[in-house]
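User: My instructor asked us to take a sequence, write out its structure as tokens, and then describe one feature of it. I'm not sure where to start. Here is the sequence I was given:
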Amino acid sequence: MPGLATLLAGNAQQFGDHIALRIDEDTITWRDLAELVQRLAQVLGPSVQAGERVGLWMHNCVEWAALFIAINLLGGVSVPISTRLTPEELEVIMRDAGAHVLLTSKSYRGRHYFEQAADRLAGAASGVLVLAPPPRGVGQWGRAGTLSGPAKDGNGLEAGLLCIQYTSGTTSTPKGVLLTTEAYLRTAAYVARCQRLTPSSRFISAGPFFHCSGSMHALTTCLWAGCTLTSMSIWNPEHFLDLVQRHRCDVAHMIYLRDVLALKDRHAREKLQTLQIAHDLGTREYLLRLHDELGIPGISNIYGMTETCGQFTMWYPDDPLELRISSNGRPQPGNHLRICDPASGEPLGPGAIGEIQMRGPTVTRGYFDRPGADAEAFTADGWLRSGDIGALSEQGVVTYMARTKEIIRCGGENFAPAEVEHVMHDHCRLGQVCVLGLADERLGEVPAAVVLDTLVVNWDKVYSEMRQRLAGFKVPKAIYATAAFPTTMTNKVQRSTLKEWIDHGKLKRLF
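Assistant: Let's start with the prediction itself. The structure tokens for your sequence are:
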């Protein structure tokens, strides 16, 4: 497999004057991007050796994309870090990865990233070098700290490692997922094929580059296809509509289309008339709304996780609509799925409901310096345990249902909280809502819902609507209010924290 810089050089040669990347209204051509990568690699060369881990703590910008490619060119390993994290959380990841170089923005949207990183990491004994590249790599670099000391032992890291993507569950310490250049490029080629991308495609993504959604599905996929990527430094549904209309974008990724529906913009469908292919995660009814109300003919469900470089299963836009909105697609050739009993681990037959497990060349080989996490995540015969509940058809189509730990078991009936959340959000118009299971002496568990305390709701009317759409055991037995939802670094609601708050009487009961 070629490196990222090799693909970039090919695009620069064939489509040199075409726009490679547009972030908001900042654009760069393929030729200029290739030159920027070489310029940055030359500056970073003395500080980044083969196998060295390098932190990237920046918002979506041209320099982020160029640095990601430059680090790969030098044989280094990128450690993308969310710009939402505090300096203390940043330090935890930098220490865990053994990264002695951090590349960051000087400032963005009023937050001084370079100053915060320097204060936290660049002490006399830290051995961490904090660098802030100037726009286009021309001018004075911000520099703090001194590079010293050996990097953390890579414990036999496999060759060709591209990045370490940090992820965490609802309570665990962040773990570094090891992802190779080959796995990224295989997945990017699969995505490009499924989304019918060509050099003339106009791709738009709101995915932050510090997640797989941005670095693989947006950056690497467009690099593979040679097409223009329009990105955003911050998500805004109105800005998204404006970008699609102005630049006639035809393929979308990591777009929060629920926010677009919530705008109730009667011109939204007209503004999106060029958008032919997109995906989202949700119920059949929700995706059908995106097809009917927003006019996106190639809408589809997908399935994947950080440990699989993002998308593990996808659809083609000309697959039947009913399949695309009611299940989650097929894996690329070489990758495999199976469904196993969550308790015994025994493989189950077609149509059976159990844990989704995966194996193949795009699946991570494990976590950085976490042998215990590796043992927990993989079966004895080498399959990745997803922690997700789903089913697999005879044709190899997977249908995702819920997280294993989120399934609510009420009086012998099992159901996913997402089903109830969909009804409360889309039909009862309650905005953000989280449904979880609370311990019950008679039934084992009963569902409860948590909403924001700013809501003014006629609960009798809401319950009447829910009872028409949900079986009785699925209707929440209680409603609680919170000022804000506790979330993980990847913006997932921490259900365990909400349960603790309810158990300790910290949330007001509304119904």
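For the description part of your assignment, you could build on this observation: Residues 359 and 383 are 5 Å apart (CA to CA). Try explaining in your own words what that tells you about the chain.
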